[in-house]
Amino acid sequence: MALTISDIGKAVLDTHYAVRGPIVARAQELEKAGKEIIYCNIGNPQALKQKPLTYIRQVLALAEYPELIEHADSLLPQDAVETAKTILKESKHGLGAYSDSKGMLFVRKAIAEFIEKRDSTAALKVESDPDHIYLTDGASKGVQTALRMLIAGDQDGIMIPIPQYPLYSATITLYGGVQVGYYLDESSGWNLSYKMLEEAYLEAHARGVRIKAIVVINPGNPTGSVLTRENIEMVIKFAKTHGLSILADEVYQENIYRPEDSFVSFARVMTEIREHEVSLFSFHSTSKGFLGECGHRGGYMEVRNVPQDVLAQITKLQSVSLCSNLPGQVVTYLMVKPPAEGSPSYSKYNEEKNSILSELAKRAKILADGLNAIPGISCQPITGAMYAFPSIKLPEGRTDEEYCMALLEQEGVCLVPGTGFRQVAGTAHFRTTILPPTEQILSVVEKIRRFHLAWK
Fold first, then answer.
1. Is residue 68, in this structure, part of any structural domain at all?
2. Strand, helix or coil for residue 29
3. Residue 83: which domain range?
4. Tell me: the pLDDT tens digits for 385-431?
5. pTM here?
6. For residues 361 and 384, what is the distance between their CA atoms, to the nearest angstrom?
7. In angstroms, rounded to a whole number, what is the distance separating the alpha carbons of residues 298 and 292?
8. Sign of the dihedral through C-alpha 63, 67, 73, 74
9. Which residues is 328 bridged to in the sheet?
10. Same domain, 230 and 260
11. CA–CA gap between residue 262 and residue 264 (Å, rounded)
12. Same domain for 175 and 45?
């Protein structure tokens, strides 16, 4: 007899991933039928016309097809050629062979140097160990590895921010754990407070949940907010009080749009306060920032304050998949080791980088200002990441899923309903990206305005 739905495990059936749910499926049907769709549902920059960085693709082309190198001197910048030669030398067997399960050592060393340079100051030395770094197929695989390690039974809980990114809820469900939501305060720009953390912890603990870790997404997805250093230190102290590990999702660290804001890593604050007992899993990705190399699936997980016997178990789990993909490892290397100042590629690389980030900042302001000008929609400032999560007033008895589906059908704008990210009871939201080209962002705002004012 053929496999039936009744043969599928409950954990799989209960797993949901909102950013690619039924609304996206309907969008694809409409697109096939000839309707123009603006996809604002997922952080996929190059699908929304962001151009790849020239240097990244030059080096990748040479590393994937080494025979080009002998002809490249007159065509490509010398530093791109030399970087490709370094990659081929250090990888030993090229990009078609497996690497060490943790990833190629020269890439992990470059990541450690990147972290140390990013976080250290004249008064503070932040150290990073390449042996505590794992190269992953995007940050998602690192998150899944950490959660697989932490969830040992059906009463093991993971604290996640509400609203949250569905990767976390989906993976926790799939692995048989318990989601413990802590609410972000929309009225204060999606900040978090010790009181709200404590309330969420105590409520779950009273239900018999064994809470193992807390997830923090900074800059925020879907909220577009940036945490302060004080917020980060508060989370570390909360985790220490309750014996929790921390999962720090830091994939949007380059996406900061206001001069008064800055990215501060959990690794840096832990070093500053000399915290050596709280285990930290931090994640970064080539998919976000200004690279937007989602399809190459590059990323890393750095682990701190974890004993060797636990580290060995992480390595064992990583080895089940043999290794992350080699082109993704190379893009991760190029992310953390960009062209050196004064090199032939430096000027163009920085011009492309700054252009992408400045356009994202412009779109963030256009979108927030435009949504706030629509009666019945309220959007907090988009200070980081690639998203907005505005609240919407709906006619009585209607849902945000109905709203987003109707908007898609009528205006061709594909959003994700707030329900997929969870939200305060009695409220309604949607998530949208800031990634479409600027002229399309203006069009998105107008389409939402026209629809929102007319929808009953």
1. yes
2. helix
3. 55-92
4. 999 999 999 888 889 889 999 999 999 999 988 887 888 888 889 99
5. 0.90
6. 9
7. 10
8. negative
9. none
10. yes
11. 6
12. no
